[in-house]
Amino acid sequence: MSPKQSELSALSEDQSQVMTLSLVVAVVLLVAKVVAAAITGSSAIYSDAAESVTHVLAVAFAAWALRLAYKPSDETHHFGHDKVAFISSGFEGAMISAAALLIVYDAGRQALASTAIESMGIGMILTGAAAAVNLVLGTSLLRVGKKRNSPVLRANGQHVLADVWTSIAVLVALALVHFTGWRGWDPVCAVLAGGKLLWTGWRLMRESFGGLMDEADLTVEKELRDLLDAGCAPHGLSYHNLRHRHSGRTHWVEFHLVFPDETDLGEAHEIATALEGRVANLLGNDVRVISHLEPRSAEHREEPWELR
């Protein structure tokens, strides 16, 4: 195994351990919420449990996707497998959205039934404990996801924090019912939690679609242009056809460099390699940079397939 493959294997194992922990916690909290929902009969707690069911399914899918994302390129996948990360985050968003719709439906059903809420104290304790655990787990997943540049971990972290919001809605609902005596607070808070989940789910699906469609990050583009402007100026060069995309954990960048006709090929290659290295340093470890060298006399002789 090459040093690069060993590094990727270590990163994959590190993130897989975090995802396994997330899955174990999700299952334990699901059981606790189901028990709390059965004891109290609260639609808000039921909505929290329903969201946790989709969360368990999404985490299981994300754990599989994370391992596949770090699989090396092969004969049929020349650019690797890391785009599966966007499929995973989109699936997680779809699961959150499905839970949100289920929550709103059940809240309406419970409001019409007007059933009493029992054992609110036990329900609040279980829900509060679940919220505290998810808050710690969610922030940890987001931190590791940003550090490792992993859409899978970031999406899972956002899903866990969305679970925290539903738990907070449950606590608020039960407290309002306790102090006001009006049962209607329970479905109202459930609907509000469902709305927040629907927004989170839509945002994850939107980001996933953007990644699958190779949507460019305009902030990264400005950084790249600033770097190329500064790197080309001392050598009297220009550039065009800058393209970049992010495939999950890998940045792909390509551009054309235009040299004076009299530039020696070896010198041009040395300058281009140095610029490629600066681009790689700007974007991090998982970067693929390709430059195309052109003489100035042929700068405008671009083929149609080169234009964007």
Strand content: 5-15%
| Main sheet summary | 3 strands, mixed
Number of strands: 3
Distance between the termini: 38 Å
Structural class: mainly alpha
- In CATH, the architecture of the largest domain is Up-down Bundle
Order of helices and strands: HHHHHHHEEHE
Total number of helices = 8
Output the strand order for the largest sheet: 1-2-3
Fold-level CATH name of the largest domain: Alpha-lytic protease prodomain-like
CATH superfamily of the largest domain: Cation efflux protein transmembrane domain
| Tally of discrete structural domains | 2
Which CATH class of the largest domain? Mainly Alpha
Helix percentage:
over 70%
The shape is: elongated
Low-confidence segments, given as residue ranges, are none
The average pLDDT value, as a whole number, equals 82
Evaluate the radius of gyration: 25 Å
Outline the secondary-structure elements.
Blueprint (H helix, E strand, L loop, with lengths): L2 H38 L2 H27 L14 H30 L6 H29 L2 H30 L4 H28 L5 H15 L5 E9 L4 E9 L5 H19 L3 E9 L13
Parallel strand pairs: 2-3
Antiparallel strand pairs: 1-2
Helix pairs in contact: 1-2, 1-4, 2-3, 2-5, 2-6, 3-5, 3-6, 4-5, 5-6, 7-8
Explain what this protein looks like in three dimensions:
- The chain is elongated.
- The chain contains 8 helices and 3 strands; from the N terminus they run αααααααββαβ.
- Strands 1-2-3 form a 3-stranded mixed beta sheet, with helices on one face.
- The protein has helices spanning 3-40, 43-69, 84-113, 120-148, 151-180, 185-212, 218-232, 265-283, and strands at 238-246, 251-259, 287-295.
- With 308 residues, the chain is mostly helical.
- It has 2 domains: 3-212, Alpha-lytic protease prodomain-like (Up-down Bundle), CATH 1.20.1510; 218-306, Cation efflux protein, cytoplasmic domain (Alpha-Beta Plaits, 2-Layer Sandwich), CATH 3.30.70.
